[in-house]
């Protein structure tokens, strides 16, 4: 990216993270997933170098930066073939929510560990019957003397097996209106009544997906994050960084695939010239590069708006960035596999598994159709059908 758009500090951070990524690469992550393990070595190295905590406030052991820096880290790891999905969840969502809205005790308890990688948190919002409609969330929290009691189910929750706690989105009753409103609770992994079962995914990844059950889970009063009356604001404070980080994840993956295809097209020779000399091969790769660069610019805009405190502006830009990055990633991966032909489906080149992985950004954390709904309603002012 041009130096006129990115500071020397950001350029240096990119180079440093890229070097770490090259040390591990795609084969490391693929092998870890095949063996059923977790990328602990890469996580520890990224933490030791300060990359996991770049967005955590300095007073709690972080780098004092923002989502702009954290998304840059994830993008470069992805471009090296070894993105860390838990970066989206632990420092980006949970770390941001606690830093912005947590009590001083919650900040002291969680943020230093999230920054140095010794503690991780998962994030639980999706439910079997709610999908993208957060108003249908049925996980409820009720007061019982000085405790909260949570009951409900969650699905497609990443990394619960390795997380020390899960930030659960529940709903509490508004004393004034009687209606239910969203609230966030820190639920320790070993809390009685907090169960989990792994979901058998076709997608092979180191981070497993889980269905969670909360059966009368009792939590202390201080498990509630932030103000009980500001739940929606706090919720979206975590969802905007999630969308920005998903964009970074997708852009990094797209860059990785495209680099493999470009290298192949430069050297693969069938007729007199390398195949990259033929416009039918070269132009689609050039178009994929353009789409990735455009998505990266929107991601940068979204991160800058968020870090500047413009939650409304960041909401629109984060959704657009996530949409653009997902589309660019899928197209880049598809074209890269197509460029390699049969080799694109071999384990040696490591692209075939990305055909499935690239679709994740189109689906999660919110579908592209729901983003189009958001833009049509919020940006264009068109009426709703629901």
Largest sheet: 4 strands, mixed
State Rg: 21 Å
Secondary structure: number of strands: 8
Mean pLDDT figure:
93
Count of DSSP helices?
10
Biggest sheet: strands side by side, in what order? 1-4-5-8
Order of helices and strands: HHHHHEEEEEEEEHHHHH
Key terms:
386 residues, alpha+beta, 4-stranded mixed sheet, 4-stranded antiparallel sheet, 8 strands, globular
Commentary on this structure:
- There is one protein chain.
- The chain is globular and about 80 Å long.
- A hairpin with a 2-residue loop joins strand 2 and strand 3 (147-158).
- The protein is built from ten helices and eight strands.
- The chain is of the alpha+beta class and 386 residues long.
- A four-stranded mixed beta sheet has the order 1-4-5-8, covered by helices on one side.
Q: TL;DR?
A:
Helices cover 51% and strands 15% of the residues. The chain has helices at 8-34, 40-48, 67-79, 86-101, 104-116, 231-267, 279-307, 311-340, 352-363, 368-379, and strands spanning 121-124, 140-144, 147-158, 165-173, 180-188, 194-198, 209-220, 224-225.
């Amino acid at each position: 990216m041009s130096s006129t758009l990115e500071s020397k500090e950001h350029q240096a951070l990119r180079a440093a993270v890229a070097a770490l990524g090259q040390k591990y690469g795609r084969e490391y992550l693929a092998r870890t997933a095949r063996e059923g393990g977790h990328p602990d070595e890469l996580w520890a190295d990224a933490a030791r170098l300060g990359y996991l905590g770049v967005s955590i406030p300095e007073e709690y052991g972080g780098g004092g930066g923002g989502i702009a820096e954290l998304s840059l880290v994830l993008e470069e790891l992805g471009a090296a073939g070894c993105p860390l999905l838990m970066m989206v969840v632990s420092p980006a969502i949970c770390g941001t929510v606690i830093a912005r809205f947590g009590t001083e005790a919650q900040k002291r308890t969680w943020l230093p560990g999230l920054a140095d990688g010794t503690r991780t948190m998962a994030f639980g919002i999706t439910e079997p019957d709610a999908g993208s409609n957060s108003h249908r969330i049925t996980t409820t929290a009720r007061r019982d003397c000085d405790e909260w009691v949570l009951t409900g189910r969650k699905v497609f929750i990443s990394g619960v097996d390795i997380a020390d706690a899960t930030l659960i989105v529940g709903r509490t009753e508004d004393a004034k209106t009687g209606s239910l409103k969203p609230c966030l609770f820190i639920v320790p992994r070993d809390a009685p009544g907090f169960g989990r079962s792994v979901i058998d995914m076709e997608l092979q990844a180191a981070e497993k997906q889980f269905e969670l059950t909360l059966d009368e889970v009792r939590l202390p009063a201080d498990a509630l994050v932030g103000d009980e009356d500001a739940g929606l604001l706090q919720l979206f404070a975590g969802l905007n960084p999630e969308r920005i980080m998903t964009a970074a994840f997708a852009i990094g993956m797209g860059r990785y695939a495209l680099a493999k295809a470009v290298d192949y097209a430069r050297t693969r020779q069938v007729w007199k010239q390398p195949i990259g000399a033929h416009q039918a091969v070269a132009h689609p790769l050039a178009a994929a590069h353009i789409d990735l660069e455009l998505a990266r610019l929107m991601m940068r805009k979204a991160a800058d708006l968020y870090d500047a405190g413009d939650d409304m502006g960041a909401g629109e830009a984060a959704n657009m960035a996530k949409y653009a990055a997902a589309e660019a990633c899928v197209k880049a991966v598809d074209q890269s596999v197509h460029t390699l032909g049969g080799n694109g489906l071999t384990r040696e080149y490591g692209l075939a598994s990305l055909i499935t992985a690239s679709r994740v950004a189109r689906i999660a954390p919110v579908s592209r159709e729901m983003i189009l709904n958001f833009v049509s309603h919020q940006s264009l002012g068109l009426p709703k059908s629901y």
